Structures are given as C-alpha cells and as structure tokens.
Amino acid sequence: MRVLLVEDNQAICEMIADHLRERGFAVDAVGSGEQALSAARVARIDAAVLDLGLPDTDGMRLLASLRDHQPDLPAIIVTARDGVDDRLRGLNSGADDYIVKPFNLLELEARLRAVLRRAGSRRETRYSLGGITFDTVTRQASALGKPLDLTRREAALLEELMRVPGQVITKDRLEDRLYALEDAGSANALEAAVSRLRRKLSGAQARLAIETKWGIGYRLVESGDT
After folding, report:
1. What total number of domains does the chain contain?
2. What gap in Å lies between CA 224 and CA 162, rounded to an integer?
3. 107 to each of 51, 76, 100, 193, how far by Cα in Å?
4. Full-prediction pTM beyond 0.85?
5. For residue 160, which of 192, 138, 134 has the smallest C-alpha distance?
6. Which residues touch 204 (CB under 8 Å, ≥6 apart)?
7. Residues 18, 44: one domain?
C-alpha cells in the first residue's frame, strides 16, 4: 500500500513515515502542497495523510486538488487544530478521518487501515491460498498454520500477489506498490524480492508458485495451475 504523507514538520514527518514503513507501507513523505501534487502525478497512491497548516497551501485545498487527479482517494487530516469547528470543517470538506496532534502512531495506523478498508482499497483483511494465509492487519503470514518469516518487502509483495491470484501484475505496478519515490529499488530489486519469496514459499511446502511472465510481470498460482 502506498501512502502520501504531507507534513512540513520534519521531525513529525520522519516519525510517521518511519512507523508506517516498518508496518509495511510504501511512504512518499513530502513537506509542501507542491511536492505532494508532484508525487501524486508520478504514481497512483492508496491514501493520503495530510497536515492542514502547510507552507504553501491549506490541507483541505490540497485534498481537493489531489482528488481532481484521483477522485476516490482516501484521506486523513492530521493537525494541531483541535476545535470542534475545525474537525467538522475537515470532515464536511471530504476528509475520511481527522486526528489531532499529539497522537499515538498505532492509532494513526489503525485509522489509516480503516479508511482503506472503507474505501474498498483492501476489501479483505485476510487472504488464504495454497496453504498460505496472510493477515493484512498484523502483516503476518503463515504456512500450513506455522509462522512464515518474511521481511516487510516480502510481505508487501506477497500481499499484492495474493490480492489477485492468477492475474498477472506488471513489474511497474509492483514496484509502484513496494517502493516509495525516495526508496526506489535498484533495477533488479524486485527480481531479488521475488526470488527470496519463492524460496521461502518452497521451503514452507506451500502449494503456491510465483510465475514469471517475461517482459510483463508476475502472477501467483496454486501448484498444478501453471
């Protein structure tokens, strides 16, 4: 899942971004409205977390501009403005949720996952196929009931593949989902992640295979369906 984080306080921005990345999100973290719009033009995002008081615009005006480009974009306003009128204005202007600083990072993460579910970006919280189960909330995978040790990148890759089993996902789309702009992988980073995940699935005796469609991308299939 790819999140656009717009926060001009560098310390707060880094704190939120680090937490979300550790929890499996790809995060494009920027400090202004102009940078946010530039990031949104480069790649489709799954949700936005926006501060209201930005140096070059207001967060609600920015949200309106982002939705001109992506009308169904889920968004959470994060701000120090704690008045009832401010909260009502934010929600009535189209924000999906509103959280006041200071806040707990786990609460922000939970609210983010909630707006993603409501928007239909992730309709399921648990995927099961070929003896593998993946919980999108805990970010934990299991193979035949036993925990499967995955890095956050491998977990994100498995989630994307399990969301649409049997369908080919292009390399560009997978890279877009797994890597933020400032965290872009090397030319063979995706291939390396696929290779590691294949080994772990095989070692866990999962009835799954990651099939390569040369020049296009990858798909996840149950063994015997390739």
Report:
1. 2
2. 17
3. 16, 12, 11, 30
4. no
5. 134
6. 131, 132, 143, 144, 146, 148
7. yes
Q: 133 and 90, same structural domain? A: no
Give the domain extent around 28: 2-119
Residue 68 has a CB neighbour count (10 Å cut-off) of 11
C-alpha–C-alpha distance, residues 166 and 127, integer Å: 14
Residue listed under structure tokens 């926060």: 7
Residue at a domain's end among 93, 119, 145 = 119
pLDDT one digit per residue (tens) for the chain, 226 residues: 889 999 999 999 999 999 999 888 989 999 999 999 998 888 788 899 999 889 999 888 898 898 888 888 899 988 877 666 666 666 666 788 888 888 999 999 999 988 888 766 445 678 889 999 998 878 889 998 889 999 988 998 999 999 888 999 998 888 887 887 656 555 588 899 999 999 999 999 899 999 999 989 999 999 765 4
Helices 171-178 & 189-203 angle (0-180, nearest 10): 90
Alpha helices (runs of H) in 2-151, residue ranges in sequence order: 10-22, 33-42, 59-69, 84-92, 105-119
Of all helices (H) and strands (E), which one includes residue 148? strand 146-148
Last residue of a domain, one of 88, 119, 150: 119
105 shares a domain with 145: no
User: 143 with 48, same domain?
Assistant: no
Following CA atoms 8, 10, 14, 17 in sequence, which dihedral angle do they give, to the nearest 10 degrees? 10
CATH of the domain at 139: 1.10.10.10
